[in-house]
Amino acid sequence: MKTMDEIIAFCKRRGFIYQGSEIYGGEAGLYDFGPYGVELLNNIKKAWWRSNVQLKSNYVGLDSAMFKNPKTWVASGHVGGFADPLSECKNCHTRIRVDKELAKINVAADEKMSEKELQEIFDAHKSQIKCPSCGEKTWTEPKMFNLLVKSNLGDFTEQNDAPVYLPGEACQGIYLNYKNIVDTCRVKVPFGVAQIGKAFRNEISPRNFLFRCREFEQADTQYFVRPHENEEPYQKIKQERMDWYVGLGVNPENLRFKQHEHLVFYANDAWDIEYNFPSYGFDELEGIHDRTDYDLTQHMKYSGTDLNYTDPGSGEKYIPWILETSVGLGRMFLTFLCDAYTVERAGDGERVVLKLDPELAPIKAAVFPLLKNKPELVAKAREIYDMLSQKMMCEFDDNGNIGKRYRRQDEIGTPSCVVVDFDTLDETSPNFGTVAVRNRDTMEQVRVKIDELSEILDRLA
Ligand code: GAP
Known about the structure:
Blueprint: H1 4-13, E1 17-19, E2 31-33, H2 35-54, E3 59-62, H3 71-75, H4 78-81, E4 83-88, E5 95-97, H5 98-104, H6 115-125, E6 143-146, E7 150-151, E8 164-165, H7 172-184, E9 191-200, E10 215-225, H8 231-247, E11 255-259, E12 269-277, E13 281-290, H9 294-303, E14 309-310, E15 317-318, E16 321-328, H10 329-340, E17 341-346, E18 349-354, E19 365-369, H11 375-388, E20 394-396, H12 402-412, E21 416-420, H13 422-425, E22 434-439, E23 445-449, H14 450-460
Parallel strand pairs: 3-9, 19-20, 19-21
Antiparallel strand pairs: 1-2, 4-5, 4-6, 7-8, 9-10, 10-16, 11-12, 12-13, 13-16, 14-15, 17-18, 21-22, 22-23
Helix pairs in contact: 2-10
């Protein structure tokens, strides 16, 4: 059975993910995407954008500035209420996130409970919670700790008494631009806006690799509907998002819906799509939220700008309700990677193979000369590599024996390996002008004409 430790070690070994600032001992909750990681990440973003903007005639895209007028975060409720419950070990001052530690001893709690509710539950159970550093069980009263990260952008006073904030959630940029989009893009309610943007949270205990970080990216859609016309599109959006993961190869048995038990005060309904992460079990991958008119009403109040929508047919004025999908890129990355990571028997040994959908694979094709000491094979393979890399991410490899080269590509999920052999160059052979193309999953080979190679591989990816 695969474990998260194995996946984490694999991510480092094959250049997918590195601990942030590793040479300085690492920084908690920060990760860097390595050369293969950034390719996979970009392919996930492209697939997400294609599904949520390109293929939807009533959705448009956006890329808003990270820094915003600080009133944004007051209006959104983040300055007042975006907080997690924290307690400190009285012995060694290690801080824990109270709701998460309670959950570990099977006491139902989450960050959406009121401070009072959490305090009562914590008081009743704190004697069972061991400090992860020193093992003591003595805790301070839980306090709500605000997760917004402050900055001094544009403040030259050094007191930083008027902080601006890094985005606590990426979606606020969509609300701030809702009016611009209505005024300039000929959209009509119902319509959607999609955005991929960074978010920062002062998570008390960043944990579980990419699952809970302090800096991460979110892919959000906000669908603006007429008030009370939310139910049908909400169900449709929920199902579409689930189908998207399955369509990109995630095993449906590892996915499930879970309804939120504790709703934030403005939400009508909220569901998560959960993934069964190795070692961690089922946990939130994506949130799908019915947010009512809360966001636009708040921004109208705090900005003084009229955010009413006027129906072009009837002239009716209203604040649209919003249906949101929001998913962390890191959690998507982890989902696709964990689901694709396979260790299987091959010949008389084992191989690790990343059975990613070709659309997501970091490298689409690898080109090898059969032997590295035959200059004519190497030259032809280079020529084919130069031709293919105009169209797709490719690798050239002439290092080690061919079996090892296949294994290296299987591990990073390359769908096709192209081999230039003696037949390729032998004018008397029926295979002259062809190459062997080996499939990652079946390990079978077919001969393909060099002239048709690019088109065939392009279709696969
Ligand atoms: N705009 C709604 C929103 O931000 P959320 O449930 O706080 O809602 C949405 O976050 C998604 O962002 C989550 O489902 C998860 O995929 C991702 N996410 C949230 N906090 C995260 C963290 N600390 N590290 C990585 N991803 C996170």
